[in-house]
Every structure is written in C-alpha cells, then in structure tokens.
Write a structure and sequence with these properties.
The complex is a heterodimer of chains A (230) and B (100).
Chain A lengths: L1 E8 L2 H16 L3 E7 L5 H12 L5 E7 L4 H7 L5 E5 L11 H15 L8 E5 L16 E7 L6 H4 L1 H5 L3 E5 L11 H11 L4 E4 L8 H16 L3
Parallel strand pairs in A: 2-5, 2-6, 3-4, 3-5, 6-7, 7-8
Helix pairs in contact in A: 1-4
Chain B lengths: L12 E9 L6 H11 L9 E7 L2 E4 L5 E2 L16 E5 L3 E8 L1
Parallel strand pairs in B: 1-2
Antiparallel strand pairs in B: 1-6, 3-4, 3-5
Classes of the chains: A alpha/beta (230), B mainly beta (100).
Chain lengths: 230, 100
C-alpha cells in the first residue's frame, strides 16, 4: 500500500474563515466575545442586563445563534442595539455556530448597520445552547465566556472540560437561588480549579444585578484594550 | 492537486488515517458512523477509517516538565503547579490516505 501524507486539520477551512473575521475586527478595533452555555443558563438575561449597562458608554451589537425561533433576538432588540439572528435549524439543525455563518453575520452588521466611519466597540455572540460543540469551532472571537448557572450543579466543569478550559471567564449565574439549593460552592470552585485554575469566575445574578459591576468593569477594560490596539 | 498526491489522484482510497485528540469534543464512534455515510459515492467508498487517539499532554511552566494526565485535570502531577498549557490532545487531523 502506498501512503500519501495529507496532514490537514479537519477544521482548517473553518479556522481560516475565523482568522479572517478576527483580522477584520482587529482592523476596526472591535472586541468579539463568544458566549457558551447549556440551554437555560441565563445567557440572554445576562446579555439584556449587559446591554442596559453599556448603553451610552459603548456601541454594541449582538449575533444571536439559535436552532429555531427569534425569541432571544427579539428580546435583545428591545435594548436598542443591532441584532443579527442566525437560525442554524435552517441549515440542518446545527448545534453550534460556525465561522462561515458568523462571517456573513459580521458582514451584514458592518455593511447594513454601520457606515464605514461608524464605530462599533463590542460584538457579543450568543452561541447555540450547548456545552460541547461550540467549544470546538472558532468563530473569530477574542475570548470565549462560559455561563454556568448554579442550578446545573457543581460537576459541569468536569463533564464539559473543553468549554471551561478554553474560556477566559466563567459567569456563575442565578446566585439569587443559592438559599434554595444544596449547591456546594467550594466543590464547584475546586472542580473549576482542576480544569482551568486561572479562569476568572464572576458570581452573578441577572435577576438581581449582583456581580454585574465586576462583569461590566472587566468588559470595559477589554474593550479599551482592544481600542488601544492590544 | 495531482502533484500534491504524487500522481495518485483518481485512485480509490483503501484507508484513511485520522488523528483525534483525547481532549477534543469528537467521539470516535460517531466519526466512524458519519464516515460510513459520508464516503458513499466517493473515492473513499471502500476505505477503512483508522482513528488514532492522541493523548492529552500538558507542559508545566513551573517545573518545565511534560506529563500526560489520564483525566482532563490541568494541575501538574509532578509539582502541583497550575500554570500549565496544552501541548497535544486537541487534534483533529487527517494524517494520510493509503492507496492499494
């Protein structure tokens, strides 16, 4: 048998498109964040509150990924920033966003919603609710952020290590429910420390606003860093 | 393309050698199943898919040593340091084709 060396990354095409997105956004000094989580963790609620806090300070846009419906994008549109919806169900029920889809959404955002001189500071990409596949597909983001709600349990970082390992920040949501749950915070922090010792964890509640000062401070610092060309 | 594949372009492939990292979200059993379907009507229709799992390997910036943790625990088993980076185990590569 003759062996022919191929040596090609299966995700090479996706990664090339992701690189193009990254370069385009870097050129315009726009920070892009990729939000990962299970369905129902509170990503959309966190985004609603985030947009409220950033209004008047920075210009934001959302790229919303869902298998079906525009329910989340409609909620976010009410905050007054541009929202581009990607329904992966139309393409066969994709459980994650891919670079090609995000590239089209970014193009639409920059051309339809902004002129060449308009500034956009931040694109928040809400990925399809899934802690597995979205971690595998680069979509041109600067950072991945994983949202985990305390109702999901302390073991999730161990069960879905790739998502947690590749994230810069973990938003630990629904802290308002802590008195009603047998949630072991020490165990959760220990599990996270095993998978990603240096990850930044922000305890928060999208319902009460707890933790949002720290989250917004981090966001603003990252946006400023991007604008300064770092 | 023909130059790339050394004049073998158009021949049927007998084996596809795929490398999957232990710390990726790809499940080998699913890859086999999907390959069975995807190869139909192509030069790969009779090809065997051989998957090689690449173990997770980490490098500790504190003791400067490599190790291969059995579980995705990113604490150095040698010095307990937590400043580690992934060296291998995130792969998803087609290594080679084999032609009869």
């Amino acid at each position: 048998m003759t062996e022919i060396s191929v040596n090609v990354d299966v995700l090479e095409e996706n990664d090339l498109v992701a690189k193009t997105i990254r370069e385009k956004l870097a050129h315009r000094k726009i920070l892009a964040l990729n939000l990962l989580s299970s369905p129902g963790s509170g990503k959309t609620s966190i985004l609603e509150k985030t947009l409220e806090r950033l209004k008047g300070r920075f210009k934001c846009a959302i790229i919303e990924g869902d298998v079906q419906t525009s329910l989340d994008s409609e909620r976010l549109e009410k905050k007054g920033f541009p929202v581009i919806l990607i329904n992966t169900g139309l393409g066969g029920g994709g459980c994650h966003l891919e670079a090609e889809q995000v590239a089209s959404a970014v193009e639409k955002l920059l051309e339809d919603h902004l002129g060449p001189d308009s500034q956009l500071d931040l694109i928040l990409i809400e990925n399809v609710g899934n802690l597995v596949c979205p971690a595998e597909f680069e979509i041109g983001e600067d950072c991945k952020i994983t949202v985990l709600s305390i109702t999901e349990g302390e073991d999730k970082p161990l069960k879905y290590p790739v998502a947690f390992r590749l994230s810069n920040v973990v938003l630990l949501n629904k802290l308002d429910l802590l008195p009603h749950l047998d949630f072991n915070m020490v165990l959760l922090k220990s599990n996270l420390a095993n998978v990603h010792p240096k990850v930044k964890v922000i305890n928060m509640s999208a319902k009460t606003g707890e933790g949002f000062d720290e989250w917004i401070d981090w966001l603003c610092e990252m946006i400023e860093k991007k604008k300064s060309g770092a | 393309m023909d130059n790339l594949y050394g004049g073998h372009l158009g021949k049927r492939v007998a084996r596809v050698n795929l490398m999957i990292g232990a710390f990726s979200t790809v499940i080998p059993e699913c890859m086999h199943f999907n390959f069975e379907v995807a190869r139909r009507g192509t030069i790969f229709s009779d090809a065997e898919l051989v998957i090689k799992i690449i173990p997770l390997e980490i490098y500790c910036k504190e003791c400067k040593k490599n190790s291969e943790p059995a579980e995705p625990v990113f604490v150095c088993p040698i010095c307990d340091g937590n400043d580690v980076e992934i060296i291998k185990g995130r792969d998803l590569r087609v290594e080679s084709f084999e032609i009869d």
